[in-house]
């Protein structure tokens, strides 16, 4: 593999997403051998030395750092990958772009549009390669939905609906904030389920069905106070525990979205369904290797919802893996995104979702929160 | 059976619902032999003699009428059953009540709250037995949900969601109005999917989860003009083709509801799901003999959604039918409602949903339409 | 309805099947109004007067008898319907045929081929209309399978598999024999699951896929002794609790069949699957309104198993019932068989499965039992 | 990771299984960081230099060989992993064991019992660590089944049923033999679906439910002649295209097994179901992250089949991967087997299935083939 071009990675963060991204870098070479670029795990960064050292050893990074600025300052880093809590995305991304590094960023782009816009500006100004890990686009079934929708098979789209349902915060004993629980802290996360879960649904929706024009939302915080893990004190919960909104797409379709962490029995039930004039499609993450399709063009007496197992080599990405009938998992969506990013370096095409795409999702999320707070419809500003 | 008390029925209408109700009357004796009352198919009424005569012969009515006032005027009628288009419900119900007849009415109660309120007043004043056919309460799986919810098993309720998805009006060639298509005519129906489909979901929801406090809705009319079957002319479509709303329940739960006739691939997909602190339940009409349940009290390593086949004799109504594993159908919900109505005559207890219950659903429907029209939240007035 | 021809029924038996058949007679007029013949519930017969009197009253029979020979002797009976335990089928059927009555018989035809052959002979000699209630042929999804198979859509058939799984005899406390439990008594039933459950699977299989040539079987009796309900004594269990066999069909397909009453969690899981060169079909009774189909002719990237909801008016029998999306139940298969029998009286065509068809199934059942007993392959004698 | 003990691997083969094993070696370090041993990809071997060189480069082997004897002769190899066609397993395994190498072998162990027995003898004599890749034991849902069965939760077992259904050889145009198609060549494979597919089912079955005592089988070869890829000539097909058998387990349960490559619509439908007195379990590879369970101990009115998503950290192996709701894939079963093998080197416990376990499966396969050929029951010799 000596002849490959190196893409030297500096990873910031050591949490769950640091693991999925790192796995993506390591697998891409094994399963996408045709790519010109080969990721090299140059360095990983976190504040706590003990933790980052262990992470570096486990995953095979060549070195580690405890200050993200040091990563950006290094000459031997081509790309900075941001896997920190949301409140650090902007500072790191802007500094990295200004230093001429490529920037890969975990979603959501930032805590707010105000924070995200300068990130996009910096990226554009620097002209650096960039991508945001809205990884569900790279689940093969979802990628196939994109192909089918783009083929025109569905005809006019009437409805789009999406859920992201979890149940892990139902217990009032669960603390908020700090290690592993920063997603429950609005200061660190920006919002609750809107930025964490609905952002995924919105990214998929606008990729598949075009931009969202306006929204009407409601949010709820079921548990009003929790102990903060950092301070040890009972504090007001400021995130949204649940969020529902309906909307108009630019193409005239109606949309309805719901996310919550209080849906007992659902773990990561990310779903989507599109109803078109001629056909409908649906998918969910708990059965991620299946795509469901209803085709009105079928013979009338045998029309029905087809459960399509996406494991054949002519289906997206699946020529890279095993044999028909043998499935892949969640982590593979990150491998695919890394592979597509590497490919984009060859072709010079952007690797979507770009920072610019992610800013659009940020705008919808912000309109959703504003709508819920004001109890009124809000334009997204995208049309 | 000579010793049974007779309940002499005068049925108004000969459409689909006239068939389901009549079948209910005829089956109740076969399968609920313990009931004191026995329905007698005294007369059926419709404007077209040829049609009503054929209906009477097919189903075994003793006579027929072509003027509903004649039915009410007859001394040998104990109960009037209203299966007409919605625009005739009020006149018939009020006249029947004033004549001292029991009144059974197909849903929705009326086209508007303004029309429904006098119906309730008349019923109350007359003190006559009454019921409205929100039949889905009597699907055994739904009845069992009610029992489980009432047992407190679910704990605090966080979420309620319901859909009623169809696809039968997608073709722009479909005319509106007249025979079999009056549901597409706002003048006859009052509204589109809101009164036809969401009313069912709302009735179930408030039965299972308490009253809805306020709503925020959106409606859409996808096909703007259709030929009217009566006039033969292209006219503006005035019904709602689709309706989505979110809401607060009085108990603090968030609700989200959607109905449409443009969801390609769904025929009568009436669904409901309740997420509680300790357990969740869901059901849909396409798999009507199944109840799905997730119980957090199960051993942690084997928690999951259980698909419960409702065919055992210890489950609601099922001691009346066949053997474990053998299912019943849609029509049985009407048989059960008739049986429960007959039973209520024995006990003197009201047979819910009563006209009063149905008025509450009407108020929610009206708030939904008003919310959509004004693009703002509306109180239902029920809290 | 005075102009209809009467088919005057004498029903022998008051158990579960007496109820399903009677319901069939009563519903056929309501839902198949075009038929020339109208069943009249003339008399019902059982040994215990109290029980038969109650049955007659509940279901509306004009009279009752306590001796089946009296039924056959009556001039006002056109057709005798046999719903007794299996050990009485032969005597009644032969006597009825000799008296020139039409004969409808619950399955299996008899306890053995030796018993069944004279029944067929008597029927043929008398030339009377006849049918055997292998009712699952008339589940709309199964009828549709027949149409699809006959169209040639599947190409060469490679595999046929069928199960009938129950769990109601797992408890060793359950007695055998007598009222409601005669199916556990080999003397009354002929065999255990082979005649009770597999006979259904075999009838469907040979209807859909042609005759079975040879079989290799195993049976098991898990509980060796039970209290007999009649004698109150512990006696050896002589029925087969479970039976598995594989076989060759005349068309070259391999078959595998299994029935048991010891499959914890399955109530009446009657299943079938056919794998053909170009397409496959499957169905099960627990989801009886669905047909599943895989069609290799679909576009390669969207091939999958389609779940077809059988509720549309262009699907078998469904123009008689409700609207798309609203399902029917187990009992409807009997209504359909009655309707088809009435229709056969108009057309003069036999109403299959005839006694002759049922004898073929009997021969397979007997080969299965013989194979299990001898631990060797047995020819069915049908090829 | 410098402090880890090395396990230096010499891999023979570059086909599909060479890829799954190699991926297992590479992932085990990332996800099982606590293990003392670290696999080192020392060398890979195949006859064609071009192919083996490319494989070595893609996957990061330090070297390659073109003669398997050279691998065994190398001092820097601790363990030989055999991923060749079945006809080479015995020679390599015996030579490796005699050279004191650990031996890991892809299943089935050999083409026959006669070939497999000396392999077990050699392994035992050498006293080397060994394992056979019946990988499905390490699917978390299957591992959990083992735990539940061993807990006694199911009570007495009545039934075991398993399928392995594929459809990739339906076309008569498909050639047999040679590269990628040696599984269709009895000379190379030993048998058809029996050794390729049923062997997996049998290994799982005997692990979960104890040994199989005797079998009665049927096999079929649907396509009688195919072009051989090596010779280019039309030759007789000598493998079994399909195989069905029923059997007795030592514990008294009945078993039924079926495998085929002619089940249109099924890709790798490896299924199993166990019916016990108190509970039942089922699983299939197409929904590999789910376990289904029916528990008779549940409240009577809410008994049903539970669909358990196996993604929680308290379920087998899942503490190593992602978060609740996010699934893993087929390849992970090999990662788990590698990790368990590495662990066994620490503990000194055998890593099952051992060569000895695999010999038992071989004996059942051989009894199955003999039974089919002789059309008679055959003892497995295991009881």
CATH class of the largest domain in chain A: Alpha Beta
The quaternary state of the protein chains shown equals: homotetramer
CATH architecture of the largest domain in chain A: 2-Layer Sandwich
Average pLDDT over all residues of chain A: 96
End-to-end distance of chain A, in Å? 47 Å
Nearest-angstrom radius of gyration of chain A?
A: 21 Å
Helix content range of the residues of chain A, please?
25-40%
Strand content of chain A: 25-35%
Largest sheet of chain A, described in full? 9 strands, mixed
DSSP strand count of chain A: 17
| CATH topology descriptor of the largest domain in chain A | Dihydrodipicolinate Reductase, domain 2
- Strand order, main sheet of chain A: write it out: 16-15-14-13-7-12-11-8-17
Number of helices of chain A: 10
TL;DR?
The structure is a homotetramer of 383-residue chains. Chain A has 383 residues and is α/β, with parallel strands linked by helices.
Write a structural description.
Chains A, B, C, D: InterPro entries: Gfo/Idh/MocA-like_OxRdtase_N, Gfo/Idh/MocA_oxidrdct_glycsds, GFO_IDH_MocA-like_dom, NAD(P)-bd_dom_sf. Chains A, B, C, D: This is Gfo/Idh/MocA family oxidoreductase. Chains A, B, C, D: Keywords: Oxidoreductase. The structure is a homotetramer of 383-residue chains. Chain A has 383 residues and is α/β, with parallel strands linked by helices. Chain A has two domains: 5-136, Rossmann fold, CATH 3.40.50.720; 140-379, Dihydrodipicolinate Reductase, domain 2, CATH 3.30.360.10. In chain A, 33% of the residues lie in helices and 26% in strands. The first copy, chain A, has helices spanning 16-31, 49-59, 68-73, 89-98, 113-126, 140-150, 186-189, 193-209, 332-347, 355-374, and strands at residues 5-12, 37-45, 63-65, 79-82, 102-106, 130-133, 157-165, 212-220, 225-227, 234-236, 242-249, 254-260, 269-276, 279-284, 290-295, 305-309, 378-379. The first copy, chain A, has a nine-stranded mixed beta sheet. In chain A, strand 5, helix 5 and strand 6 (130-133) form a beta-alpha-beta unit. The mean pLDDT of chain A is 96. Chain C binds chain D through residues 158-159, 161, 167, 170, 216, 218, 220, 222, 242, 244-246, 248, 252, 254, 256, 258, 260, 262-266, 275-280, 294, 296, 303, 305, 375-377, and chain D through 158-159, 161, 167, 170, 216, 218, 220, 222, 242, 244-246, 248, 252, 254, 256, 258, 260, 262-266, 275-280, 294, 296, 303, 305, 375-377.
């Amino acid at each position: 593999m000596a002849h490959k071009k190196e893409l030297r990675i500096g990873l910031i963060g050591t949490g769950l997403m640091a693991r999925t991204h790192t796995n993506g870098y390591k697998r891409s070479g094994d399963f996408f051998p045709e790519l010109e670029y080969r990721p090299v795990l140059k360095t990983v960064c976190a504040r706590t030395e003990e933790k980052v050292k262990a992470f570096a050893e486990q995953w095979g990074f060549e070195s580690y750092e405890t200050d993200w600025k040091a990563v950006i300052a290094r000459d031997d880093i081509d790309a900075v990958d941001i896997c920190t809590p949301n409140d650090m995305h902007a500072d790191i991304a802007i500094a990295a772009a200004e230093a001429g590094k490529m920037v890969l960023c975990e979603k959501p782009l930032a805590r707010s549009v105000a924070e995200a816009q300068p990130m996009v500006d910096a990226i554009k100004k620097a002209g650096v390669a960039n991508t945001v890990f809205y990884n569900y686009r790279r689940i093969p079934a979802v990628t196939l939905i994109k192909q089918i929708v783009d083929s025109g098979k569905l005809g006019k789209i009437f409805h789009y609906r999406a859920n992201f349902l979890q149940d892990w915060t139902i217990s009032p004993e669960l603390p908020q904030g700090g290690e592993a629980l920063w997603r429950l802290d609005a200061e660190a996360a920006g919002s609750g389920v809107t930025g964490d879960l609905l952002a995924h649904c919105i990214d998929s929706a606008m990729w598949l069905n075009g931009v969202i024009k306006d929204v009407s939302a409601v949010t709820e915080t079921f548990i009003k106070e929790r102990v903060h893990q950092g301070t040890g004190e009972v504090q007001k919960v400021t995130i949204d525990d649940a969020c529902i909104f309906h909307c108009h797409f630019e193409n005239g379709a109606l949309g309805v979205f719901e996310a919550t962490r209080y849906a007992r029995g659902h773990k990561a039930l990310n779903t989507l369904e599109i109803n078109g004039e001629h056909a409908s499609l649906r998918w969910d993450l708990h059965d991620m290797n299946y795509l469901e399709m209803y085709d009105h063009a079928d013979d009338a007496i045998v029309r029905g919802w087809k459960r399509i197992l996406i494991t054949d080599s002519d289906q997206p990405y699946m020529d890279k893996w095993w044999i028909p009938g043998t499935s892949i998992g969640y982590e593979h969506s990150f491998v695919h995104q890394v592979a597509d990013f590497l490919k984009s370096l060859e072709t010079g095409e952007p690797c979507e979702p770009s920072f610019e795409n992610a800013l659009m999702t940020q705008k919808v999320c912000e309109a959703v929160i504003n709508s819920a707070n004001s109890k009124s419809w809000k334009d997204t500003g995208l049309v």
